[in-house]
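> example.struct
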């Protein structure tokens, strides 16, 4: 299965900081965590001085199915390494958490197959669904570590809705070392122990995917994946 996608990013402005002021560009919002911060936006991020940034837009891809259910567990009995997603939604202008945003995710199973029309069975909905964010802006979704398919790095699709409007469409990516460890075991190993496309080789990842990299920690026999997504609310 090959997914033909072209990366889409918002036009990003070069941001500079002085004192405690934060300059807001047309494509992103940055807030200083220190009144002593100075220099470019890129430097501020690398030094950990920025508390939020507008998450880059990445293509929806051909596998989105509208109208999926709100539910915390989207596994539908699919085998794989457990993955608990903590997806936080922030207002990129104020850095405040957004409550009651709907976060949708969808991804392939351990063998690289999507549910829905892609699996030639429109009635299936495994590894698809959404969840509302809580008071802290976090949507928690129970799924499995995604598999891979030809031409793409390992990824999860994500879409964020606020007040009924889509405010972000993107993709979440995985550290190669953890992917290698997961794929060494069943059921992933029967499909191939490594994807044919690395993050660096993936056209979507190269268009801003680094900002969609999940922070992964062990969680029992599986992993907990966390990320904060800055959006225009």
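> example.seq
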């Amino acid at each position: 299965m090959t997914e033909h996608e072209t990366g889409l990013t918002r036009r990003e402005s070069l941001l500079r900081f002085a004192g405690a002021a934060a300059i807001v560009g047309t494509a992103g919002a940055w807030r200083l965590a220190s009144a002593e911060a100075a220099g470019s936006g890129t430097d501020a991020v690398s030094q950990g001085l920025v508390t939020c940034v507008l998450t880059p837009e990445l293509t929806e891809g051909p596998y989105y199915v509208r109208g999926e259910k709100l539910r915390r567990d989207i596994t539908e009995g699919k085998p794989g390494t457990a993955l608990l997603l903590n997806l936080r939604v922030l207002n990129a202008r104020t850095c405040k958490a957004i409550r009651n945003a709907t976060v949708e995710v969808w991804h392939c199973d351990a063998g690289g197959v999507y549910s829905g029309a892609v699996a030639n069975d429109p009635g299936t909905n495994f590894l698809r669904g959404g969840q509302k964010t809580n008071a802290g802006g976090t949507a928690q979704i129970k799924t499995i570590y995604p598999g891979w398919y030809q031409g793409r790095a390992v990824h999860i699709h994500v879409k964020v809705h606020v007040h009924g409007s889509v405010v972000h469409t993107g993709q979440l990516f995985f550290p190669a070392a953890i992917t290698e460890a997961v794929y060494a075991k069943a059921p992933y190993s029967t499909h191939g122990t490594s994807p044919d496309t690395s993050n660096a080789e993936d056209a979507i990842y190269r268009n801003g995917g680094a900002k969609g990299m999940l922070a992964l920690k062990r969680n029992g026999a599986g992993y907990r994946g966390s990320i904060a997504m800055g959006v225009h609310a």
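> remarks
The first strand starts at residue 16 and ends at 17.
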